[in-house]
Write a structure and sequence with these properties.
The protein is an alpha+beta fold. The protein has helices at 4-20, 23-26, 59-71, 88-98; strands spanning 33-39, 45-51.
Length: 122
């Protein structure tokens, strides 16, 4: 059975390959990401993420690439919500929301360290 980390790694590899081409493997270029695992009140495991958007492509194209890659994964449900924060306060709000402890059984294991890369807010 595939686990959530392997599924996200597959997604991350596809997305980085589409964005950077051969530079992803050859030069180690990759998007910065923060990946947080969470269980809903209905006991459904899901992910919240922050993904760096490359400056060289527009938001609509980025959304299309994300959806195309996610739908190719085993966990690629149609329930996907993508938002571009319109202010620094919205960025902090999302970060605070995904890091809340009440919906995490073990907070020390909620961050997917294998798939998260160095990410910073401006």
């Amino acid at each position: 059975m595939i686990n959530v980390e392997k599924n996200f790694r597959y997604f991350k590899n596809m997305l980085n390959k589409k964005i950077f081409g051969n530079g992803y493997k050859r030069f180690g270029k990759e998007l910065k990401m923060l990946v947080v695992k969470e269980v809903s009140i209905h006991q459904r495991l899901h992910l919240h993420t922050i993904i760096e958007m490359p400056q060289r492509i527009n938001f609509e194209k980025f959304i299309t690439l994300i959806k195309q890659c996610w739908e190719k994964t085993l966990f690629g449900h149609q329930q996907i919500h993508i938002e571009k924060p319109t202010s620094y306060q919205r960025e902090l709000g999302w970060l605070t929301y995904i890091m809340k402890s009440k919906s995490k059984a073990d907070f020390s294991e909620c961050i997917d360290l294998d798939n998260s890369t160095c990410l910073y807010l401006r």
